[in-house]
């Protein structure tokens, strides 16, 4: 799987958006779901199944402590995607340009046959709604490579705007382009993208 999805603004999906009538279900992932998500993560990251499962297991541990959320998209018994959100607290002694503390969206991954069918939007809406339940007007962040136009345009639809290109974050690595930190301020619930 390539690092970034193909940039094709305005191009519709191969079929209408998936809905509950198609069997689509979005929910918080349980520990038993990690093995179903690992092949999707391994394909996206270009790593082994074992490495993907290990990474998802570590992340799931943070969900158990209330510091993260792992959301699953499934149709029937098939896992077709996932999305992550987690909290970040700047470490003591951080440089002045350290990214602010708060909730960060990360890792929306949808299996290629289901892309451009609204699954990523549903995963994002669910994560934003969950964060909103924690405290209404919370700012939410995410970062992306400036070359990742798909992610930038996608998140713009949810109200994310560029905050800075001068930032550091322990989990941010950008190759072939600068990183951009985005913010979404104010009410976090999204009624609809339609």
Task: Describe the structure concisely.
27% of the residues lie in helices and 25% in strands. It has 194 residues and is α+β, with helices and mostly antiparallel strands. It has a 7-stranded mixed β-sheet with strand order 1-2-3-4-5-7-6, with helices on both faces.
Keywords summarizing the entry:
194 residues; alpha+beta; Aminopeptidase; 7 strands; disordered C terminus
> Which regions are unreliable across 5 or more consecutive residues at pLDDT < 50?
188-194
Q: Please provide the ordered H/E string of secondary-structure elements.
A: EHHEEEHEHEE
Any idea how many domains?
A: 1
Described by strand count, sense and barrel closure, the largest sheet is: 7 strands, mixed
**Number of H/I helices:** 4
Given helix and strand content, the structural type is alpha+beta
Binned, the helix content reads: 25-40%
Strand content: 25-35%
| CATH T-level fold name | Aminopeptidase
CATH C-level: Alpha Beta
CATH architecture classification name: 3-Layer(aba) Sandwich
What value does the average pLDDT take?
88
Widest sheet, order of strands: 1-2-3-4-5-7-6
Describe the structure.
The protein has one domain (25-184): 3-Layer(aba) Sandwich (Aminopeptidase), CATH 3.40.630.30. The chain is α+β, with helices and mostly antiparallel strands and 194 residues long. The two termini are 28 Å apart. Strand 2 and strand 3 form a beta hairpin. The chain is built from four helices and seven strands. The chain has a seven-stranded mixed beta sheet, with helices on both faces. Helices cover 27% and strands 25% of the residues.
């Amino acid at each position: 799987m390539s690092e970034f999805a193909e940039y094709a603004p305005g191009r519709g999906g191969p079929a209408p958006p998936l809905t509950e009538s198609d069997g689509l279900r979005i929910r918080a992932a349980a520990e038993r779901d990690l093995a179903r998500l690992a092949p999707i993560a391994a394909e996206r990251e270009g790593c082994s199944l074992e490495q993907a499962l290990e990474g998802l297991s570590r992340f799931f541990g943070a969900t158990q402590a209330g510091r993260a959320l792992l959301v699953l998209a499934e149709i029937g018994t098939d896992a077709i995607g996932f999305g992550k959100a987690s909290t970040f607290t700047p470490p003591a002694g951080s440089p002045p340009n350290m990214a602010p503390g708060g909730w960060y969206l990360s890792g929306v991954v949808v299996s290629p046959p289901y892309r451009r069918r609204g699954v990523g939007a549903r995963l994002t809406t669910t994560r934003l709604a969950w964060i909103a339940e924690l405290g209404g007007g919370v700012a939410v962040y995410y970062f992306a490579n400036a070359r990742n136009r798909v992610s930038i345009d996608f998140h713009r639809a949810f109200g994310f705007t560029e905050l800075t290109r001068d930032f550091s974050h322990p989990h941010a690595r950008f190759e072939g382009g600068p990183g951009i930190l985005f913010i979404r301020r104010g009410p976090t619930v999204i009624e609809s993208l339609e």
